[in-house]
Structure formats: structure tokens, C-alpha cells
Sequence to fold (581 residues):
Amino acid sequence: MSITPERVAQIAKLARLELDDEKQRLFAGQFEDILKYMDTLNGLDTAGTEPLYSPVEQPTPLREDKAEKRFERDDIVSNAPETDGQFFIVPKIV
Amino acid sequence: MSFLYDKSLSEIRSLLLAKELTVTEVVEACLKRIEETEPSVQALISVQAEEALEQARAMDEAGPNESKPLWGIPLTVKDLLCTKGTKTTCGSKILENFEPFYDAFAVAKLKEAGAVIIGKANMDEFAMGSSTENSAYKATKNPWDLNKVPGGSSGGSAACVTASQAFGSLGTDTGGSIRQPASLCGCVGLKPTYGLVSRRGMVAYGSSLDQIGPMTRSVEDNARLLQVIAGHDEKDSTSVDAPAADYLAALNRTDLKGLNVGLPKEFWAEGLDGEVESACRAAVAKLEELGAELVEVELPHSSYAIATYYIIAMAEASSNLARFDGVRYGYRSDEAENLLDIYVKSRSKGFGDEVQRRIMLGTYVLSSGYYDAYYKKAAQVRRLIREDYLKALEQCDVLVGPASPVTAWNVGELTSDPLKMYLMDIYTISLNLAGLPGLSLPVGLGADSNMPVGLQLLGKEFDEATLYSVASLLEEKTEQLGTPAGL
Fold:
């Protein structure tokens, strides 16, 4: 499948990015090359092979479900671009 | 080796404990070295000179503490490891002013052990790159030739250690980002087994691949750092709950009798540059002289590793980097008028091209209709790659091969062709998919380029001790590279 600049714009939208026309064209060519390279995997028969998502196949360790205060609110909001000291502030949504 | 800053971490430790040197003297020597070399090498994003000197004075007042294994040792850490109250940029504009309020687990361990963190090392943005040219702040240069790249993404750490700005540095390795720059700059770099070092406080790129590891000028120094940062962390669900081995004790081996060394034939095939092959073959011959038995082994799925890796790493990156939304931390565009605008404009201005490329390709391979063909397929191939390694390691104790197919390339040479840059990771990448440990050791200079060549030793799960014991003996039998020619 060929990757057009329009397709690139569509993927950008899904990724919450916006690209100017020039970058869309540049990425289209590069994506085409990269995805073509990735398609080499299709030459390999993997039927019946269980996917491996993590090299550590230990079960997720569980802890007691008990609320615990680990962080201070001041610390959590300390890097926010906009805050009133209590909450993160964003433009009005509703 | 007449300068203080050129000494090994181990030597400095002895001198500090014997009170022949003060921490202030050692820190000052490193800061002066940074002042001298940094204009040309550009290894660091920030230097914490005042804090380091203040800490040094307090430590000198208190006197040496032998129970702290890194007491008074100046180190740097890659700038994607959170440092409390010190900017952590990940080499990105989007985190230009980010000041974490906690230390990464590994950084906290260094501090507890008495280390003095003097700087944050440059890197490819969010660890995405193989040359440290993708940093939003500066491109690091190779101390052996300032016209060449240091490798990446931990190129800042590698160049800093090679230029003797500090006695060690922590890097991270997602697809070779410790071992490849160590090879290109001529220092020792270890990627531990996945799960040995906690990833908490390391800004994530590919969560199932990332590991933190030490970069140093000697094998012993490396073992000393790993000893400190290895260990269980209950706040990282992938951190393995098992005691770390005694890595320093592993350095006492006197020969390699009884050790089987596997040579994966795919690592010694076409595509490997002649000068790299010669230097690595000479090192393998030394292993044989030391008593090791050489065995040829196969890793039949190696040719699929790069495609597999980039699908998985990009998929994980697209998910991990979704957190940068201009709301809770990081850059927010002032042109945004609504919430969606904040996300889109902040991310588009805050991320560099390579990061945007990987997020988008990751989004693509995870999107409806493509998930099975790319992501699931890659995860299946990943299992086959891991099984190859486990099978090969049934026949031998370690595997050896080159860390990089070439020595350091010219600055700017590969920046316009991302795929060509990805292909440079051919010998390092499959190990991260398998989760196994690997170490790059300098074994000489390339006959044509006069640039460092690294031999990669790959081991069994949680068997870093064997890697250190073999590397340490080989290091002893190898002529030291000497002072980097570019400085």
C-alpha cells in the first residue's frame, strides 16, 4: 500500500499531531520506505506462535488494595503549565 | 594517566577513603575538565556545579564513609533519568523546564551510595536515535574525532566518560543505546537483563525494552556501578525480586578454561566492516588463548530483528508519549484555544521530527486493521528471536560479536535517511527483544579509521557476573586505547 501525504495527515490526526504540507510529503516517502522494510516480516510463517509482549513473563505482583498517600498535591501540580495550586487548568470544555 | 580526572573510579575511591584526596578536589577536577572539553564535545545538557561543590564540602567535613560504595565519586546521568529538583529534559523541547520532584530509583541508589551527580548527559530526544544528533539542545561529538558522531542514544554519557568529565555515567538501552555509543566512543557499557534495574523515574520510550545501565572507562568501574543500581523495586512491576549477584567477586577469574564462547554466524557475516571484523576477531583469538572454547552458533531469525524491534518500540512509544499533552507538565502552546488544540499544538511544537515519526508509525501499526499485521506479528517474531538466543545459550556461556557494523560515522551523514540509521542497530537490537544482558568492551582502534571498536559479549539471563569476568580478563589482555585523539 502506498503512503500518501493525505494518509500521513490522517495518522497525524490520530496521534494528536499536525504537520505542514512539506513535512507530510517528506514523511510520506520515509514511511513508505520504513513500512516496506517492516513488511519483510510477512515472509515468515508465525502461525501458532504465541506473541511475546514482555521478556519478563512473571505475573504482575499484587499488593493489598489500600489507599496510601505517596505524593503531595503541591508537588504534583508543580510542573503544570497552568494551575491554581489545586487543579490543572485547561480551556473551558463544556 | 597523570591527571586526576583520568583515574579510574576504583582508584579514586581508594584515594578518597585514604584521605589522599578530598571530595572537593575530585569534584573540582571534573568540573575543570568539563570546562575544558565541553565546548568541543558537547556531552552535557546541564552541569550542577554549585550543588556538587556544596555536597562535596559537606562530605569532606563529615569524613570518608567506607560503607558507601561510591562515596565522593562524581558521576553524570542521562537526561531522561529523573533528578529531584534538577531539570530533566529528555533532550526535548517539550520538557525544557521540567523539574521532577523525585529521583529515579537508580539515581536515588547512586546518591545513597555517596555519589555526587555533577551533570545530566545529552541524548537523542526521548532516546530515539543512534547518533545523539536528535537532541533539541546540541549534537554531541565523538572525543576521538570531533567530526564524527558518538553513537546514541546515550551518546552524551559515552562521550562524557570517554572525555574523563566524570568517572561514570548511567545510560539507557532500548535497542543498543548503551552498547553502541560505548563501542563508538571506546568505553565500557552494560545493558543489564530486563528487570534487573528498576525503570521507575526513567522516562519511558519502549517499556518492554528499556533498561538502565552503567557506562565507564573500565570493567571494574562498571561492575561497581551495577552493584549499586541493581535490585528489587516494588514500585516497578517488572523489577525482578531476586538478590543481585556479587559482581566484583566475579572479576577474580584468572583464565577462561571451561568457558564456551558462541560466535553467532549471523553477527560475523556480510555487512560487517573489515576493520571492525579484524579488531573483533583479534579479541576473540585472545579469548581462545585464555582457554575459552569457541563454538559456532546460529540465531536464525536475526534478519527480522530490526523490523520487529522498530514495530514494537514505535508502538510502545506512541502509547508512552501520549502523556505529553501540555496539561500536567511540559510545554504548552500559547496559540491553543481549546483543549484539543492544546494537545495538538503543544505536541507538534514540542516534539522533534524523529519523535513525531516514531509516534506516528507506532500509531499506524497499532491502528485498527493493521494491529495484527504489524504489532501482533512482531510480537510473535519476538518470541522466535528470544527462543533463538535461549537455544544458542544452551550450547555456550556467552555469545560474542561486534557491537556495531562500523566505527563512528561523520556528523550529518545519516540524518536525512532514517531507515539507514535504523539499520545501524543490527547487532544490538535483538538482545533487547530477548531481554538478555550485553556488554560492549573496547578492543582496539579500527585499522583504517583509527576510531574505537567495541566487542559485544551477550549472556544468559541475570548472568552479568560472567560477562564481567570475561570482559575483565579480556580487558587485561588488550592494549588500552589511550587518550582520545580528538581532545
In short: The CA atoms of residues 82 and 89 of chain A lie 5 Å apart. The mean pLDDT of chain A is 94. Residues 5-42 of chain A form a domain with the Histone, subunit A fold (CATH 1.10.20).
